[in-house]
Structure formats: structure tokens, C-alpha cells
Amino acid sequence: MKRFWFLLLALLWALPVMAQEETEVEEIVVTAIRVPIPRAEVGSSVVVITEEEMKQRGYTLLKDLLKAETGVDVVSTGGPGSQTSVFIRGMESYHTLILIDGMKVGDPSLMQRQFDLANLTLDNVERIEVIKGPQSVLYGSDAMGGVINIITKKGKGKAHFMASMEGGSYDTFRQSIGGSGQVGHLSFSLGTSHTKTQGFSAYREGREKDGWENYSFSTRIELTDCQKISGGVLLRLHKGVTELDAGYDLKGYRVDKDEVFFSSFLDFKPFEKWKQRLTFGISDYRREYVDAPWGDSRYSGRRYEVSWQNEVKPLPFYSLLFGADYGREEMDQMEPWSELSGSTYTLSLFLQNQLKLKGSITTLGLRFDDHKEFGQRFTYRITEAFSFDKTQTKIKGSLGTGFRAPSLYELYSEYGSPDLKPEKSIGWDFGIEQSLWKGKLFLDLVYFENRVKDLIEFWYPGDLWWLGKYVNIAKAFMRGVEASVELRPFDGIWCRLAYTYTHTEDEKGQRLPRRPYNKVKMAFGRSFGDRANVFSEVIWVDDRLDSGEKLSDYLLANVSGSFKLKKGVELFIRGENLFNRRYEEAKGYGTAGRSFYGGIRIEF
Fold first, then answer.
1. Is the pTM of this model over 0.90?
2. pLDDT at 589 over 50
């Protein structure tokens, strides 16, 4: 810990003599109720990561950015490119719904239809919003634990471009280019990158390197305010090649992944108080296992999403959101011993009321889902936010139900059953936010609970695993506390302390795997005008269970910084795991040791 305090002193060595007044800009959140709303009016617990924060922290992958957030746990089974899962408030990783610009993503060919974060870079990303707690009323299946929305950058102002090069530990090299701008009613943004690394062994005790190569491309083109009509198209591509270990004394193999995300939207305002949005999206997933010990395998999945959304504001204090969603999933699997294909669809109707009274904002939502296999399901959600302007206090709370429809694999594989019911949950939270000293000190405290029933698990009699099948037999309970304190004493200086306590158990009272009881984060940032930035964070993660064994707790220290040589030319550096801790996120899988990266960024 002495080294930690040394880092802290180094970061804060030059405090300005007098504080400079900052102009507060009201923060807008999109994901919480599917339309833009001031964050102060949101009753749910929300995390917002801005483009400025992403740049200061220096990470290039979403998974690294999320690891330090309260109530969020990220686990990778190996090095770069390895499967990566995210847990919100102790819920299963497949109970977190991932959105890209509001479009649902998740591979239908995976066992639980979850989205693998391994190849998702931060190229052309403007902000990330995390909404915790059941969100099925607005987003349907899979949103039992929460929602993470990755929002692509919008083009603004005069066209400008950037290029960067980066290199570092594990023979890592990365190049990226991007740009954005607006001409009249037409705006654009784009970003592309290539990353290649020799990596480290995916197997914890291994010595050989398991490399990763990734290509990423993203673009957003919009036409705004043209005869009451606005619209746009968005495209994101990921191509990753990952080398993996097969186990003891077995030859390694390769996984090729291709992901395509396309969405389009059309906004129309027939009347002053009525807005409509029509969206259409396709996401395509392809995985191929090459030279695997069990033989080559191919998997493909595709999702179609169509949504019609209406926002009506008949009164200054009342708004109504209603609409319909249609989603279709398809999957194909080609394995040496079997082939499998299947599809299903869901038609949904949703309704949400929002009432604004003096100091109080209430939302009440209902949703009806009609699934091809399991039938119909109703969900509800209530949120409340009380604001006291005089004391800058906000009391918030939410109560909602959620569900997860069985995946195609759980329905149609040799172990599946078309009679499976959806997993169901109910969750609530209650918290307080307090702003002091004109916003220089901010405190947030939340208590939460989630209960899940009809969990789908693989069951088999005795030791006869080949007779097993998926059945609705399990239950789970989660509760915990999220607390954070953020201090901004002077312009350009901030520090944050965050703590999460998560208690999880199944129906037998056993702790759920890969969830720590406690997690603590300390972070510090210092900017020197527009010339330089310094960032440091220390993260402590408590012990966890995995495969029946306890994984030791660990502490990570990371730093990053940037320095502008001249206008448009910037140097940056990043150090990870500075204390060179040897730790595991998942049992038997390797993690990176002390590593450093640096590069140059040019803007023009």
C-alpha cells in the first residue's frame, strides 16, 4: 500500500491555488426510459462513462473499462480475445442485456444467447450507459440484471480526423483512424482499428503464448431536421482471431469470430407533442474452431430486431411512451458429431407512463411478450425519484420484474426441451444521492435485492451425464450495497472511492460462482488544462468461488497519462497491474502481469 500512496502523491503534487468555477451541463441519459431524460430524473441506478473519461483512462476495450464500476464484475477465460462475461449485481452473465445504439445484441448460437465482450473495442464510441436492475419492461428478455448500452459517436461541427499508433507489452501493436463532422443536415462519424498481440498463455500454468488479432470498424451516418424527418444508419464490424490452449499437453487451437451489427432508424414528428421512431436492425455472428482436439466446428447466429416507438406529451407534467417490438433469432451449428439448427421469434407490446410533480418523478411501465415456444409473459416496473433542490438531495428507488426466454440451444439441442419455461425475476433497489459544495462532492448509496426462480440448469441422474437435459429447477437470491464518493475540489482534479458488497446464494444456500463479496475501487484524475492528463486507479477484488474452489483476492493498480506536444499531436502511455500480481478471474485461466503501452495520437 505504500506504493499506492506514493502514486497518489505523485498525481496530486500540483494543486491550483484557487478553484475555478465550472459550468455544469445537465447530463442526459437515453437508456433508462428509451428516450432522452435528465439523469436527475432517473429513478434507477445509472452509470455513465463519457468519451472524455474513456480517453483519460486510456483503455481500448469495453471489458477493461467496465471492470472498476460498482455492481459490475467482468470475467475473462484467458488472455486477449478470450470469452468475456459481465455480471451485474450478482446476476448471471446472460442476465445482462447488451445494446449497441439501442439494438439488442447477443449470439443466438451460444448456449445462453449472451454477448461476448472479447472483441468489442471503443473505436467511435461516444458514451456507455449502464442501467442496473430489471429492465425487461422496456427491453424484454435477458434484461433481468441490467442493460449496457454502447452509443456510437455522432458527427458534429467541422470535419476532423485522427490517427494513432500504440505498442507495448506482449508484442502488442495497435493502429487506429477515425473522423467525424457535419455538413448541413448530414453528419457522419467513423472509426477503425487493427490490434495484434502475441498475448500470454490462456492456461494459467502454460508457457506458450496465445495470440490475438482483431479488426474493428464503426460508422454512423445521420440526416437530421429535414422536413420533420430525421434518420440514420449505423454499422459496426468485428473480426477476431484468438489462439487458445486445449489443456495439458494438447496442441492449441484457433477461434475465428466475425460479428456484424447493422441498424437504421427513422424519426418522425407528426405533431408538436408526438414523436415516433421506427428502427430496424440485424446482427450476424460466426464462430469457427480450427484444429480443436474434438475436430473443427462452425457456429452461426443471426438476430433481427424491429421496433416502433411513440412518445406523447399531452400535458407538461405527463408523458406516455408506447410501442411494439419484434425479434427473431436463428442459429446453425456444425460439429463433428452433430448438426443443429433452429429459430424462434417474440412479439412484444410495451407501455410506460411518466408523471412529473413538484420534486417527484414517477414512472410505471407494463410489457406483454408473446414467445413462439413458451407463450405469453407480462412484466412491470415502477421507479420513483424525489429531488430536494434546497439540499441537493435525491432519493430514488425502483421495483420491477424480468425474464429470460430459453435460448435456441436450450430448446432444440439434444439436451434441450421445447417445454422449458422462461426464467423469472423480481428486483428492487433504494438509494440516495447527495451533492455538496456546489457539486464538488457527490455521494451515492444504494441497497438492492434480486430473486430469481425457474433458472434453467443442466440436470442428469447420478453420474449418467449423457442422459442429462435442461430443466427449470433452480432458484437464486442476490442482495448488496453500492456506495461511492466523488470529490472535485478544484478544476481539473477529481478522486473517487467506490465500494460494492454482493451476497449471492442458490436454493441450497451455496454461493454463486465468480462473484466477489466485496470490491473496492480508488481512482484519481488530474488534468493540466488541455496539455496533459494523468489517471490512476487501484482495484481490490475479494475472493470468489469457481469450479468448487476458492480463488484468492487480488489488488490491481493501473495508471495512464497523456501529454500534448503541440496542437494536434499527443503522446500517451498506460501501465497495468503495476504490482505484477498473479491472480485468476476464472479458475485455471491466465491473466496479464505487469504491462506497459504507449503511443502517439495525431488530430487534423
1. yes
2. yes
